[in-house]
Amino acid sequence: MTGCFPDQVAVYTEHNDTSHLRDLIAGMDLTGQVPTFDALHTVRANLDWLVTAKKAHYITIVKKNQPLLHARLKTLPWRHIPTTATNREPTRPPRDRTPKTAHVGDLNLPRARQAIEIT
Asked: Which domain holds residue 39?
């Protein structure tokens, strides 16, 4: 999706940003692409539309604004899952980012099959 940034869409007071996601990306060909979203856009209806209508995959962030989903992810056996790599970020002091992935089947997110934890 290099170079395909959508235009801005006015968000009126009776709506929020999540209700305009479809307007922003409706004209984009996302077939086989993997757009990423922040926690605000972890909305099942939008993610379902993304995988069914746009034929895309997705990566979304889950925070405590989705309490049941967040709790379910916390119960995965992360300490028993080996790390896949460690990436040292050039910050001061340097920070290590360690991702772990787990196969999942019951997250109640459209077609979600993997969860990623980054510590």
From this structure: 17-79+89-118
pLDDT of amino acid 42: 85
Q: Which two tokens stand for residue 61?
A: 């962030």
Q: What b/e string do you get for 21-50 counting C-beta neighbours within 10 Å, with b at 16 or more?
A: beeebeeeebeeeebebeeebbbeebbebb
Chain centroid to Cα 115, Å, comes to 10
Is residue 12 a part of any domain in this protein? no
Q: Which token pair is 19?
A: 């209700």
Distance CA 35, CA 58 (A): 5
- The verdict on residue 11 lying in a domain is no
Q: Tell me what the pLDDT averaged over the chain comes to.
A: 82
